[in-house]
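Cross-posted from the bioinformatics board.
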Amino acid sequence: MLAVRRLKEKTIKVLLFITALVAVVGVILITIFVFGKGWPFWEKYGLFKSLMGRVWLPNLDGESIFGLVPLIVGSFCVTAIASLLAVPLGVGCAIYLAEIASDLWSRMFRPAVSLLAAIPSVVYGFFGLIVLVPVIRDFFGGLGFSLLAGGIILAIMILPTIIAVSEDAIRAVPKSYKEASLALGASRWQTIYRTIVPAARSGIIAAVILGIGRALGETMAVIMVTGNRPLIPKSILDPGVTLTGTIGTEWAYASGEHTTALFAVGSVLFVLIMLINSIAIVIKNKGELK
Amino acid sequence: MRTRVRMAEKVAFLFLGVTAVVTLASLLIIVIHVFKGGVPHLSLKYLLGKPRNMGREGGIFPTIMGTLWLLTASLLLAVPIGLGAAIYLNEYTQKGLLVKIIRYFTENLAGVPSIVFGLFGFSFFVIYLKLRWSILSGALTLALMVLPTIIRTTEEALAAVPDFYREGSLALGATKWQTISKIVLPAAAPGILTGVLLAMGRIVGETAAVYLTVGGALHLPTSIMQPCRPMTLHLYILAGEGISLTGAYATATVLLIGVLILTIAAQILGNSFASRNIGKKG
């Protein structure tokens, strides 16, 4: 009886261990199957040459040219615009919610942030297509389909990440810091920007990096508003294309070598995001240890 | 001097208040705009009708069913695995290298962009495992995608269960698994459910990963091995290819309503769970 029981306990433990390994196996399989499919591309076109190539021109019949610079520039631009807009807004909002707003008000605000995070990216893209693109066209001229449109939509999409993670970091600052600062005669604002924000710095930086990672990895919303033209943009009002957008739009008709090239683009994206996320995780953990 | 400090504070607080207003306004503008365009077109006939002419006319019933098939199948895969992993990480292991590795991989899995999940799902499930473009391929991909969410929220819920629950049960002679399954899990259930609701929201709203794995055929799916077109993909095709603006508004509205309900339910449940546990500890 006891032996049976012990066997059962052991079996359960082993089963649970296996479930815990699924995530690990998943990441390994993703790495193998995305990189593996993209590998022939690097062999044929050369890693350095493709990463430095300034022309992206898949040709259905003849020779194709696969230079990743236009895609990387496009991704960089929309991400930069999104961060420039969302970081001050998001961190400001987090400070407001954690330090200034009344308890009731910030409790009512939190569901709004979750809702913003829950809206599907394709709905953001649809809104951008219907509202934002025409507005940009009317105000600034051009097509409206632009890196600016992509950046603005992405900014709204990464706001909840930045707000939620920064707010947690700010709330985690010990109350004694704040009390000491106020007791020394500092005003509330002085306390916030000289004491609380510096103490929450690592968490806030992690929030920003996570937001950037999200912006870089977003696909559908970007596809719908940036115009998807693989040219190196001259201004933020030009259409452009991102790493994600290239995969998303060209997927539908790609075949053979073109598909391999898209997997290569996916690998570049994967490496970039893994790097960014690892930095965020390290910074966050360091902050928590302190 | 004093007045300058006070002025600075006023200006700063005003700016911070404005950031909060802008955030709230973005949410309201998007939701209200979509609802205004979509609600007038909603009817039972639209929800339960067959699409005609590629979605220009008729209803969206097959896409709703596509979303529900994907949702059910991916939850059936992700919830047991996610729960198991969280229980193992929180109840069975102390700190160690292995746990660190598993945590690191789980956190990184959470950061993988959905289009990369799509590429993976295509090359692994659709091609390598020969599951073709099907609900199953899509659900397997989605399950992997939401796994980190379920693991993290479940871990948090388990960690919030006070230790004396476990000690009391073990002291009464229950085994470890009996303690977990009969005492710890029920106490953590609302928190776990919150995580599941969040995962459901992500599954319902996902497009890119699904786009590359489910095919997108606009028909009523009858088995898990068939392709399908969930609502998100339908919206993308309607709006992106300019097939039907009213259809896009209506589909976006249904999608938003679904996601809003899931998120609000998660919020309410999460709040009640948090306050209950604080009560317990005090």
